[in-house]
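Hey L., structure's done. Input below.
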Amino acid sequence: MKNALTKLKSIYGLVLGFFLIRLVGITLPPLETWHSWRQTLTNMIARNMSEGSFSYLYPVVDMGGERTGIIGSEFPFFQSLIASCTLIFGEAHWYGRLINLVVSSLAVIAFFHLCKRWWNERTAWYGTVIFLTSLWLAFSRKCMPDTFAVSLVIMGIYWFQRYIDQRNWWKMLLATALITLGGLCKIPAVFLFGLIVPLWMSKSVILQVKVMITLAVGIASGIIGWWYFIWVPHLVDTYHFALFFPKGIAEGLTEIAPLWGDFAAQVYFGAMRSYVVLLPIFIGIIWLGYRSNRLAMAGIVTVSAIFFVFAIKTGTVFPTHNYYVLPFVPVMGVIAALGLQRMDKRLAIALLLFIAAEGIGNQVSDFRVKDEVRYKLTLEQQVNQLVPKGEKIIIHSGPNPEWMYWYHRKGWSLEPTEITDPAKMQEVRSFGGQYIVVDKRVWIIELPFEKIGETRDLAVWKMP
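Output:
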């Protein structure tokens, strides 16, 4: 009993240790190299919620121009938690980091217990270390809903397993709520629903329990489907602003064709941030096939098949955005752990240490903010010196929301070619746009309008 308690404490110690590691720089603004644009978009929606548009059904961004800025995006539950922190504690850029870190750490504990329940403790330990040092290490502390959503689904599956083992109705309700919120926060997390397949196939699970799980997953899928396939298209059709643009299979394959190398790299390196891990993954795949482990293979094959269909439907997005592989990371972690378990224990531990070191080493640079981008923290103050508060602005960052977030303004985020297009600028002026703000560190340009002033980093023109 004492030994079991010691082992239980040690997994919490491991997770706590990685929690503390990821607290390094937790209060940094979202300016690190990997996807600061996606973090500022998340924070932008959260900020609009805290500043008066606290609506789950109508998320708002600042780049709408003459439009409302209401956007067809993921369900803003994660953003609402950030907004709630702002309303309680005041404005800060990092609340989403801490929220994500806490929830993702709880998910790692759930992941460990699931692996232990489905395989054994050794597999659970191997898988958890690999999971913690994978791409999860960096993205579980970002102001993005991706790891947050996957975490909710993992915890939901854990509570489904607890319901199967103990038949407590509240565990079923909790599991249903968690997988529903996870899928709503980011639809790729739904692919992990495939891990529920072995529960249906297991002969040890009675029919009544299978029926309840089927109903729960059906309800969750229905709610998620309504949001993404009915409500989001309604928002796009009504307010003409979309966050994502899914492709058909054929179109996706055509876009990916010249990027197959990058597509593959996102899986064989991007997910785990390690090359060493490929050896145990390969051994794990062979072992699963050789042993004909029907239940494990059913879950892994289901998740993998759905995931790769999704990846293809994103077109160029998956090969060029490393965080889209995150839902597949726990699956790869399990396969690698199964491969390590087939090895001599000393060799397995040595490889595990190499995998962990490589994963951490390939991500440590993302735990800091480069000095040359810190000037963005002053952009709001600089633009307020030249443009009256409340006035919309015209900027040159295209679909990238980062600059508009730091300006803390609303307006038009155009491509540079559009700003130099007289017809386009006349159109924007007809909608009330007057002030053109240019970040001089990004774009050196002289425009045929009245320059009303400059600061250290900005130049502003006013259209007549």
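The first strand starts at residue 393 and ends at 395. The chain has a mean pLDDT of 92.

-- N.
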